[in-house]
Amino acid sequence: MVVREKILDMVIGCFKRHGAKRIDTPAFELKETLTEKYGEDSGLIYDLKDQGGELLSLRYDLTVPFARYLAMNKVKKMKRYHVGKVWRRESPTIVQGRYREFCQCDFDIAGQFDPMIPDAECLKIMCEILSGLELGDFIIKVNDRRILDGMFAVCGVPESKFHAICSSIDKLDKTSWKDVRHEMVVKKGLAPEVADRIGDYVQCHGGVSLIEQMFQDPRLCQNKQAREGLGDLKLLFEYLTLFGIAEKISFDLSLARGLDYYTGVIYEAVLLQTPAQAEESSNVGSVAAGGRYDGLVGMFDPKGYKVPCVGLSIGVERIFSIVEQRMKTFGQKIRTTETQVFVATPQKNFLHERLKLIAELWDAGIKAELLYKNNPKLLTQLHYCEDMGIPLVVIIGEQEMKEGIIKLRLVASREEVAIKRENLVAEIQKRLSES
Amino acid sequence: MAERAALEELVRLQGERVRGLKQQKASAEQIEEEVAKLLKLKAQLGPDEGKQKFVLKTPKGTRDYSPRQMAVREKVFDVIISCFKRHGAEVIDTPVFELKETLTGKYGEDSKLIYDLKDQGGELLSLRYDLTVPFARYLAMNKLTNIKRYHIAKVYRRDNPAMTRGRYREFYQCDFDIAGQFDPMIPDAECLKIMCEILSSLHIGDFLVKVNDRRILDGMFAICGVPDSKFRTICSSVDKLDKVSWEEVKNEMVGEKGLAPEVADHIGDYVQQHGGVSLVEQLLQDPKLSQNKQALEGLGDLKLLFEYLTLFGIADKISFDLSLARGLDYYTGVIYEAVLLQTPVRPGEEPLGVGSVAAGGRYDGLVGMFDPKGRKVPCVGLSIGVERIFSIVEQRLEALEEKVRTTETQVLVASAQKRLLEERLKLVSELWDAGIKAELLYKKNPKLLNQLQYCEEAGIPLVAIIGEQELKDGVIKLRSVASREEVDVRREDLVEEIKRRTSEPLCIC
């Protein structure tokens, strides 16, 4: 949990740095709200039992609830983040951090703005987070729905097969071109020449020079959609350069992305592995993704009023596994409490004194604990401090009572110093602020 | 197509007929008949092609939290969590649903309020009803014999929601529990200390913590002559004494639950009493109660508890109240409930409680219900009723007209002229990389006035203004939104200057 909290703090800190407001939505939505938003994935939604009231389902992501929130509250512009659990009835593969209940961290910008500025900020945020988490090198693949659709059109893919071919292409990050081509031709009935033409494109990736190249491509430049997409990507790369992150971004024509509702730019961040890491299955897959989805809110608005949106989602569960794995490998010890001072006694019959003393520390805002024993042994108490990583101990006993002092002991060095009772709180606070 | 259009017209006309009847307040049978016709017509139309027409809402008894509500919520959670941490608690989390069998048989009459998930071919699941049963399951599952943990999460109850009174179907609980076999009453006292610290730090007004003990209640019922079989049901009647008068409670016990009137009167003598440690002493001397072993145990523990509460400096906030009964079945020892006090209408009257904001108690038998060998792990804990606290804090902020910021942005990067987007993008990126909270408008050529207005609305204290002349001079104009003072800062000093200004305690920017 402590690892989770540190990571979430870091992610939320970045969202706040970019001026996002936070919202929260219920764990379940009306079933009808989620219906027909997830395409093939709809079968993975958890439904609640019909107990005589409204039909409900657990939320599958945070994006559809966001669109519902915008439409319901007639919000036209909003920059918001949302950290919460979502539920999917998938085949869980816990090793790769794929659960049925998992945490998502979403950041989205809704509203009609000048092109590509918010989109660029989303990518900047993804880079800041991934760099800040120190997970190693990463790359963000970028593509555009319109370029994909344009490419399929010029290659001769029948419109009815767009979606199916798209999900095949999406597998290129995990499977070879050969296997993907096979699936398209044999399973999805695509003409082999068409598949080959697609192959020429989707194996391309690069920086802004690739965009220029595609602009010049004789077939692609005939397609209006593709030109729009390429134009936006060109602008995006200009902004990413100004943001200082262009070298982390790769225009990758094989990036397809599952969800139906994307309408423009799409992106996905993957960690780059060393050969050793590649052996461990826990390092596969993307750690963050997102894109532009201009039509979703309109599906909720009774008048079909559109609110363009662009956003990202951080795959924190994958990140948790990676960080936990790393900590195990390096044998890092992590404290599960933040206790600063332990209140102890070497003698019997000092419970009352300990209780009074600890209340004084709590009332001064100091994080303190004591053992729930009337007459604990000093050694047991000191061992507890070592196990829990508590840095300071205050010891009260007969001798100290007589002299009007408290012994302050540093657990690490085992040094002890006598402090006057009335100066105790001040002395502790001084030492804590110094460390 | 024409058929469909004709059908749709029929539906429309029938809908109007129904509306008309309702307006005229026609008889229920008539309306029902016409509604049935309408539904039949709609069914003929079949599934809606094209746009879905549905109501845009959250499920009944649930709500979204707007940015403003989230800001309040974060403030409240910060206070609560910092108190739990101050007392050395670890944090855990559990899934939102449990196996249905885990929750079965743990909540008595309230079991009907549990949300079940649909049987979709896997395990049968239910949404958690509280955080205590999952905690007990966690302890048993991991074979833990002691832990001090807190858990803040939403729970689900298919209750009758009363959203204006803060009663929802999905709501937050903040639980703190100490599990383990320890010397008596020390952890119990710490729980009460925590409740007092939290309620004081939240500044929501005066409060009182009522304390009682399950064994004293049971002992009292026994010596008053309540039949064993009626213990629980009499308990829930007595529990209502904080909301209704003794007469009404007595009526319910005698009239509805079949209790003999003399027995009810005996109970009445006890349950209308409350006081401090002197009441504990008094009852230890009570001729009837002191005959009952259970009651003696309970009273003995309460006496010890009061000693510790005095050492903790909170005894004046605690009241031993014999009418405190508390709903849940699993309590086995001390029970407590904190209520906010309303200032009395007439002077000299006692303050009224206006609903509980925190509660808890000891439950030594729960973990044993999960352990295959029935191994017990004694537990004591508390739960903070944050939803009520959210409303109170929100109201207080409104009354004080305190503006609650929904973002933490420190600087807006603005431009005074056109064609300076590139410069703005470069500068805002520099600020972000230095950890400064900054924003810019998503416009290529925004007007300066709009940018300044944005700052005022969002409460952003500083503006970094880029201008053509300033660019040539190598400076940025740093403007304080509150005072409207502007000063030129050299580009290379900007980050430091902003950090300096935003770190000052009162942020006199």
UniProtKB/TrEMBL annotation, chain A:
Protein name: histidine--tRNA ligase
EC number, as in UniProt: 6.1.1.21
Organism, as annotated: Suricata suricatta
UniProt keyword annotations, A-Z: Aminoacyl-tRNA synthetase, ATP-binding, Ligase, Nucleotide-binding, Protein biosynthesis
Residues noted as binding L-histidine in the record, renumbered to the chain: 61-63, 88, 104, 108, 257, 261-262
GO MF annotation list: ATP binding; histidine-tRNA ligase activity; identical protein binding; RNA binding
Statement: the UniProt record of this protein carries the keyword Kinase: no
Domain Aminoacyl-transfer RNA synthetases class-II family profile stretches: 1-346
InterPro entries, per the entry: aa-tRNA-synth_II, aa-tRNA-synth_II/BPL/LPL, Anticodon-bd, Anticodon-bd_dom_sf, HisRS-like_core, HisRS/HisZ, HisRS_anticodon
Gene Ontology CC terms: cytosol; mitochondrion
Reaction(s) catalysed by this chain's protein: tRNA(His) + L-histidine + ATP = L-histidyl-tRNA(His) + AMP + diphosphate + H(+)
Taxonomic superkingdom: Eukaryota
A single BP term in Gene Ontology: histidyl-tRNA aminoacylation
Family: Belongs to the class-II aminoacyl-tRNA synthetase family.
UniProtKB/TrEMBL annotation, chain B:
Species, as recorded: Suricata suricatta (Meerkat)
GO cellular component: cytosol; mitochondrion
Binding site for L-histidine: 130-132, 157, 173, 177, 326, 330-331
Protein family (similarity comment): Belongs to the class-II aminoacyl-tRNA synthetase family.
Protein's name according to its UniProt entry: Histidine--tRNA ligase, cytoplasmic
Keyword GTP-binding: no
Transmembrane segment boundaries: none
Record keywords, A-Z: Acetylation, Aminoacyl-tRNA synthetase, ATP-binding, Coiled coil, Cytoplasm, Ligase, Nucleotide-binding, Phosphoprotein, Protein biosynthesis
Domain WHEP-TRS residue range list: 3-59
Domain spans labelled Aminoacyl-transfer RNA synthetases class-II family profile: 37-393
